[in-house]
Amino acid sequence: MTSVLRGVLRNSSVLKNCVKPLKPLKSLTPVSSQTRSFGSTSLLFEDIKQKQPQTYEEEKVIIDEMIKNSTPEDIQASKRMRNIGISAHIDSGKTTFTERVLFYTGRIKAIHEVRGRDSVGAKMDHMDLEREKGITIQSAATYCSWDKDDQSYHFNLIDTPGHIDFTIEVERALRVLDGAVLVVCAVAGVQSQTVTVDRQMRRYNIPRVTFINKMDRMGANPWRAIEQLNSKLKLPAAAIQVPIGAEENLQGVVNIIDRVALYNEGPQGETIRKAEIPEELKDLVEEKRLLLIETLADVDEEIADIYLEGEEPTVEQIKAAIRRATIGRKFTPVLMGSALANRGVQPVLDSVVDYLPQPNEVLNTGVEVHNDGTETPINLVASSAAPFVGLAFKLEEGPYGQLTYIRVYQGKLKKGAYMTHIKSGKKVKVARLVRMHSNDMEDVAEVGSGEICATFGIDCASGDTFIGQGSKQIAMSSMFVPEARYIFKYCSKDKGQRVHSQKP
């Protein structure tokens, strides 16, 4: 058992009142999926997966029709929203990257580092053990706003663990997200948990942009990392940036689409200065730009036609092709920089806006459960006017009882409203509704379609569906449950603690 897991168990308020845990079982029974019962029916993750369209082209036909029938208000609200996760192999720098995202978006006023750098610690690592070990143990949610082209965009962001022992936290997060930023170390490249995260993203059809971090480290090689993305992950990838300098001489990046150099200035890299491309990089920029176009031509018909005709696509055509191919899960654009050195983070936020899907560009499905036990596949509409449908994806024991994280897929959820727990059929009141900023809570009156929120006092399990008044009996799939890393058994001496510990 790893030292980190021992620390988690040692710091658990439940286990402190327990007898000594039993030794791990020698024969483990793999758990491949999670079951949720609805009367006489049960719903597996694979069940709904098989009922969904099998290609993105099939999905897009349905998505386009749904957007066509949406109100202008819903379209505008969805256009300015992104639900993203930050995922990576352990120690690739994703929490450091997330800290810069929160700072540059104005969500926090000062940058703090992980273990050993100051006495505060990164905002998203709020557990004492996380700050002691310098790793992320449980996923943490927040939200922030990013301004681009005189428009303000709302990001719901989840920072996920990189350690395999806590991979279920990644499953829970990716189940409810629309896109992701995959962070890869410029020195180590694609590692074992990078492959695992890629598999998880494919399971939930998550498009991603890739950020090659730690470009200021000795031995940094972004081109090797990109080659590994193509060869190990079998995912077409191409750089949309070229670094200006490397290792200790990293100064900025060149955007090869627009052919402009970007330099981070200011005490913490908060200001972006645009300039001409350095003379010594012009040939490399043109080489990588051509490679980008050739890679896009392999996955996008419009660029392929332009390329075969011997013409050069415009900046707008290249960006549109990257967006189509990324959302279609055929390609990932690759950016680079160093979060710790405050280089190259803001362009990643621009890429989230430009290339990752808005909520109404993702096909979310469920099944309508009829009284006779039969099920009919149904598509959820990203509209605040539709009846409420939400999925509880994470449970957390808080100071006010069980904290339940919910992704709203359809309709609105209001404070004081009642929603029905589809598994038990019980109505529950939303007594308090909050948005989470790591371990801080901000009360809200309501949240709309596409949002992530949390509430208290609800008896449910992760993966359970909730519906509002006027909704059909809709059930969504739970998340995939990977094979257990460790299994142990304990018996609590405190009966009250025993009840709490039985919840998933």
From TrEMBL:
GO terms for biological process: mitochondrial translational elongation. PROSITE patterns: G_TR_2. GO terms for molecular function: GTP binding; GTPase activity; translation elongation factor activity. InterPro entries: EFTu-like_2, P-loop_NTPase, Small_GTP-bd, T_Tr_GTP-bd_dom, Transl_B-barrel_sf. It comes from the Eukaryota. Residues 79-360 form the Tr-type G domain. GO terms for cellular component: mitochondrion. Keywords: Elongation factor, GTP-binding, Nucleotide-binding, Protein biosynthesis. NCBIfam families: small_GTP. Belongs to the TRAFAC class translation factor GTPase superfamily. Classic translation factor GTPase family. EF-G/EF-2 subfamily. This is Elongation factor G 1, mitochondrial. It comes from Lodderomyces elongisporus (strain ATCC 11503 / CBS 2605 / JCM 1781 / NBRC 1676 / NRRL YB-4239) (Yeast).
